[in-house]
Protein: Immunoglobulin domain-containing protein
Organism: Myotis lucifugus
Amino acid sequence: ISSSTPGPVILTVPLACFLSLGFISCQLMRFGSIGGNITLSPSSTVNFTEIIWKKGKDKVTEWSTNFNVTTYSLLEGRVHLDPKSGDLTISNLTSSDEGEYEMKSMDLTDSSKFHLTVLDPLRSPTLNCTVTNEIISVHCKMPQSYRRHRELLRYAWHCPFPQCEGSWELEAPVLNFTKEGDLSREVRCFVKNQESNRTSSIVLSTCVPSADNSRHRYALTAVPFAVIVCAGHSQIFLRSSLQPPSVRGP
């Protein structure tokens, strides 16, 4: 069973800084998903008279009080510049949109720099299990079709067993359960990135062959069946013992 986890995804905006030629350059790390939208904001309260946005060395869009907004072919038709705030919104993201963006303005002392990482839409993890002797091993993995930035994925387990206690991990550890435990319980695997999260679940009883899974149930139902049979024989015995003896003729 696969689903997305309800509720908002709480995101942080990390800052990456680099030392180059004696100067420290910092970039805001931003994340988006293919097909989604992203807004890069300089977070400035000045009244702009000029704005230039670049991706790498190429111009994306520019504006000044003397000229209307001009958008260049790099992202033409998919960007919107807000001259008041300086925000740059990119719609319908593609993998080629990933990279470094910079907003320059004569109204600011420093430029605003961003590094945009574009992620594949997050898929639900795949759960499978193996049985060795009396041990059930449950594995959680992302489909191989999810290729971009797998290093950003984090995994976590949820179930009513001590094995599921723990924090988010770079890889989902294999969980081991005994076949003698409560196999009716559900085990969930969560996976998340900076944009969203997904979960899949499995019931432990589906990991065990039906003959092994039902043997305890048969043992429990055998007792009342034996009682019913014994009770039936007791009633026959009592009925025959209470019946008056037949009278034979001379």
About this structure: Confidence is low (pLDDT under 50) at residues 4-12, 214-234, 236-242, 244-250. Helices lie at 210-213, 215-242.
